[in-house]
Amino acid sequence: MTEGTFQNIIYSRKTRSDRVKNLRILTVSSETTPFAKTGGLADVAGALSSALAKRGNEVTLLMPYYKEVKKKDLKVEETGISLEVVFSGRSEKASLLRHNLADGLNVYFIAHDRYYERDELYGDSTGDYQDNAERFIFFCRAVLAAGRLIGNKIDIVHCHDWQTGLIPLYIREERMDGGGFWKDTASVFTLHNIAYQGNFWHYDLDLTGLPWSYYTPEGIEFYGEISLLKAGLVYADKITTVSKRYAQEVQTGDFGYRLEGIISSRKKDLAGILNGVDYREWSPETDKLIRKNYSREDLSGKRECKRELMEIFSLESGRDRPIIGFISRLAQQKGVDILIEAVPEIVGLGASLVVLGKGEQHYGQQLRELAREFPGRVGVRITFDNDLAHKIEAGCDMFIMPSRYEPCGLNQMYSLRYGTVPIVKATGGLDDTIREFNPGTRKGNGFKFKGHELRNMLKKIGEAIDLYRNKKLWETVMRNGMEEDFSWDSSARKYERLYRKAQKELVNK
Ligand code: ADP
Fold this sequence. Notes:
37% helix, Rossmann fold, disordered N terminus
């Protein structure tokens, strides 16, 4: 293995006159765009890492080498590093592969076929994989081993979600032992969705290699199980969530999923930093996946995109008939159930609906039935299809997000850029990014409803459809949205500030 993959400390001359030391950051995520994705976590891990690298930091990304990654036509190099991970009383071997992305971002994959060579990332239609505890405890331990072998010291390890939750704990352990490779590394843990907790049978603690003294309410015990998410929340030096509003919400009983007490106790170390949008992927001016490009100045291409969508879903045309889009994991969180309930009335209000989703089977079945019941007005695809997601963003007039809770939400931000007006429930990142349109002042970028009742959502959809019939005002709300800028650079700066604070506090400890 080539020691020193990280270069020596580099100093940025271009952007900062005070010669601030750039950071060496290790990002660890169980999924990352463009390699493997089931949701927003992948977009964030990929785009944030690129934004940080572009700002001059040395960023290395680590993730499992899934079948989905193998299928991609990537130039993946062998590093020659084999990892020996002492795990569950035995030693498991894995190898480390490398791929170089643009912007100086190094990506390393942990290859272990028995754990990761599967059709899906976390489970199949029958549920989660039975050995997920083993798969991701192994991953955390392998990351610790890989970090040491990849190169020089790491300033920050940034872990995402429960699959990486043990890493801050292992680092804390090394520090307590007084030395070790990780002793000067500060850990940051980002919570993307508190409902996904990585809770497992308590005897799985044996897999972690940790002593049973961690099996306490102050440690990683959680209602008779162990929780890997809790490990991250308790032991990371800093915690973040993906919007300011969600950072407040998770401290309450309504949204905290029994972890509200733990999070409140760490309030001082908690920050809400809104996710950004990767506008290289999501811009109607340059998007290669849509029929015709368009811009805020020239919206004509959007009509072509709408036509394409109508062809794809065999939708009836009709003057003044808006198309409402919905792209989502089919999970209760996303309010799929209230959308399903609302479909006859949405059709009755004169709109058409297109749905792209994958997830719980019963939702898929109900949606397919609705497509049969309302041919020409309701189009449904039950699959994961990124190309189609782009076409829906471009071709729709409105985008609906009735999420029960939404840590950040990306589709409302994509929709804004595509002039597809969001109608959202006022929660989490949806509340932080969408401002109700006021026809009097002509300010605002979308529609927002409070509470999760069907009638509140339908009332807002009705208001949006009424406004849609006033072409002038409709173009104003579209253009207001297209003007918004949620680019990653400003979020990356906020993370950088947080990383430096974490480092400083670690040195002063
Ligand atoms: P979450 O991470 O909770 O699933 P987000 O809104 O943060 O929700 O991110 C979801 C991301 O996944 C978006 O980029 C969205 O477009 C994409 N997505 C979700 N479901 C599908 C699907 N069936 N096909 C294509 N893209 C999808």
